[in-house]
Design a protein that fits this description.
Strand order of the largest sheet: 3-4-5-6-7-8-9
Shape: globular
Number of domains: 2
Number of strands: 9
CATH topology of the largest domain: 2-enoyl-CoA Hydratase, Chain A, domain 1
Mean pLDDT: 84
Structural class: alpha/beta
Distance between the termini: 163 Å
CATH superfamily of the largest domain: 2-enoyl-CoA Hydratase, Chain A, domain 1
Low-confidence stretches: none
Strand content: 5-15%
Largest sheet: 7 strands, mixed
CATH architecture of the largest domain: Alpha-Beta Complex
Length: about 325
């Protein structure tokens, strides 16, 4: 039996690729760009400098005018910011009662000190400010009392004590002794001025010698310690007051904590070299906030000068 076979033919289909015609030069193709997230205008405003200050303790932002009105004390946590000598004098004495003394006495480079920058160049730079030295001395009135007042300026070479600072203090003490006035010295210093070598160290003995004569005349000396009061200043006139006051949180001592720890090979107690620690251990008589300082000084002077005032009323000397 014959078998019939069938053959399946597949029609050949030729696949044609679509032709791509380039756009003419006259046609302009536009592409839409996605907007960037950062292109929108920011609502944050640039804050000009000199309007706000951030508290170093509580991180609060304080309006500068409010801070100045509060004597550079944080209204939220009572942190005491540094304050200049002129501002402190203005906060303590009665208006227009302060007469500055020895204002023209300035330091010179006795030893021709050389280093990364010379002592002479540093003096020239710092003398451009309101003060020519690291202390301002004079006679003023606090309440009803005329007082001899000296206020140190930490902004001038860290309030370091050189020959001129020591001489100004000695002359202030001698003037207070001669005029029968109580003496108040507000200290803030890193210590003796290393650029003057042994000349600065001699001021420790000179200032304490003048204070000994002041004490012999039975006149009061109030020492006010602020942040920081260290080294040669704390080892001399700042620590020999009849009454020693301090601002809250002030760092007070001779050497720094790291130097003491490495020397003694022992761990220091918490709060070491703070005003609060030294008050507990008997070196400081009272911690007085800056805003209360003037009223407290008036109170102490009323008590300390009562005998002198009675003697003067009787015609004695």
């Amino acid at each position: 039996m014959a078998t019939t076979s069938f053959t399946k033919k597949t029609l050949g289909l030729e696949t044609m690729e679509p032709s791509v015609t380039p756009p003419s030069a006259e046609t302009q193709t536009t592409f839409l760009k996605k907007p960037k997230l950062g292109s929108a205008p920011s609502r944050k405003r640039d804050i000009p400098e000199g309007l706000w200050t951030k508290c170093k303790k509580c991180a609060a932002m304080i309006y500068d005018k409010e801070l100045d009105a509060n004597l550079k004390v944080c209204p939220k946590c009572q942190f005491h910011f540094p304050i200049g000598a002129r501002e402190r004098i203005h906060a303590l004495v009665e208006t227009c009662s302060f007469e500055e003394s020895d204002a023209t006495m300035e330091s010179v480079d006795i030893l021709k000190f050389k280093g990364a920058s010379s002592y002479a160049s540093k003096l020239e730079h710092y003398k451009k400010g309101s003060l020519k030295e690291a202390i301002c001395t004079g006679i003023g009135r606090i309440g009803k009392h005329r007082v001899a007042l000296g206020v140190m300026e930490f902004g001038f070479l860290g309030g370091s004590m050189g020959s001129v600072v020591g001489e100004r203090i000695a002359r202030l003490v001698e003037a207070a002794t001669d005029k029968g006035l109580p003496l108040i010295i507000v200290s803030t210093s890193g210590g003796a001025r290393m650029y003057e070598g042994v000349f600065s160290l001699m001021q420790l003995a000179k200032t304490c010698g003048a204070l000994a004569y002041h004490a012999k005349a039975r006149l009061p000396y109030i020492s006010v310690l602020t942040n920081p009061t260290m080294a040669g200043v704390m080892a001399s006139y700042a620590a020999v007051g009849d009454l020693i006051l301090a601002e809250p949180g002030a760092m007070i001592g001779f050497a720094g904590p790291r130097v003491i720890e490495s020397t003694t090979q022992s761990e220091l107690p918490p709060g070491f070299q703070t005003a609060e620690f030294l008050t507990v251990h008997g070196l400081i008589d009272a911690i007085v906030p800056r805003g209360e300082m003037k009223a407290r000084l008036c109170y102490y002077l009323d008590y300390l000068m009562v005998g002198r005032e009675q003697l003067a009323a009787m015609g004695g000397s």
